[in-house]
Amino acid sequence: MKRLNNPAGTIPGPTRREALGLLGAGVALFGAGMSRPAFAQGDDVLTEALVLRDPDAPATGNLDGDINIVEWFDYNCPYCRKIAPEIQQVVQDDGKVRLVLKDWPILGDVSKYAARVALAAKYQDKYLPAHEAMIGVSSKLTEPRIRELVAGAGIDMDRLNRDLTSNAKAIDTILARNHDQAVAFGFKGTPSFIVGKFRVPGILTMAEFEMVIADARKAKKSN
């Protein structure tokens, strides 16, 4: 797990029991007791609508699924890259999970550039190809490598350059909101997750994700 404000530092991902233990009253995560004002925007960033259903946050999997997994990630985070295919497999195998992708570029300027490129690609309906191209590499990204990867994924680079400029404010607003949410949840680095209404600040195995998803469904039924 790559840590905020400490790009070189790592901590091991929590076990399922440790992750769920961090929740406390997990099913009340979005209740008044956990809800706090946004740090930069003067609005509440921890409502279910903004965390789970932000229309500006790209999503994949079953868009009508009964459980959301929300991931905060950085393209230069090796742990994010390692876990990406496992999360996709869990989502595919389950069939009823909606995966929400929250770009959280905390590892420097190249990470910020990668996040902006991915979100700019959204304007030509190519966020997921750009995302998959960058999250699927094993080496550290550079700006030239980012451009090579997204061009290879079929992104119109002239259109991308225009969108990076014309939609810069909207892109920065999304990144600020993602950051505010991550900080408000107390996340310390990438990757970090919300599964249903459970906070999972670290890496889980595929089997552990499946168990947390099952727990989230049980919690949803009990409400």
From TrEMBL:
Domain (Thioredoxin) ranges: 30-218
Keyword flag Oxidoreductase: yes
A Pfam family hit: DSBA
A GO molecular-function descriptor: oxidoreductase activity
InterPro entries linked to this entry: DSBA-like_thioredoxin_dom, TAT_signal, Thioredoxin-like_sf, Thioredoxin_domain
Keyword terms: Disulfide bond, Oxidoreductase, Redox-active center, Signal
Name assigned to this protein: Disulfide bond formation protein DsbA
